[in-house]
Amino acid sequence: MLILALESSAKPASVAVCKDGKLIGLYFQNSGLTHSRTLLMMTESLLKNLGMAISDIELIAVARGPGSFTGVRIGVSAAKGLAWGAGIPACGVSTLESMAFQTPEHGVILCPVMDARRSQVYNALFKWQGESPVRLCQDRAIGLEDLASDLRNRKEPVLLIGDGASMSHSYLSGSGISCHMAPELMLYQTAYGVALAAANADPIQAKDLEPVYLRPSQAERERSNK
Fold it and tell me: What would the CATH number be for the domain defined by 2-95+189-225?
């Protein structure tokens, strides 16, 4: 299956094309430019340089969250529009699960951590078994103290992935947790991981694609406090 995948849930943005699990092309940018300016341009450029059109794609996949509220909305909206316009199925996958798929490390607990602000990280835990990662807990917004308590009950060393890896490493290692950070090229979520996760998920119609935030946005919190 030929998959076009989009990832814009945090500061980096990326677009990938994969065929039957093989990476054909990947554009990655971590410049801080807004994804509304870059994501569709990257998609158009990648397809053009691969000699492909959107009509060649069989599935459009996207990281549906958790992550930056604006980034997730941009990615889901772009994927929804492309899939709807081309009349092809879509697939939204967990940002955290996509990071686990792109990090095939055995013998460790994969610990994706994204900075969620307010002294929390977006997190889930995975462990590779055979050819794919197995989920150990659901996606969650969690404080580092609670994350450390969870990891103390697990025997394997911990591999940290994501833009929250550095701050999590400082806290967890200081709390006696055996952990290390993924190498730079594996540290951030990418559209390649999104494509791999989507290949193991069920496609849906574009109209049914929705973001997943895990907690209310700042605007929603402010409204509820009034």
Answer: 3.30.420.40
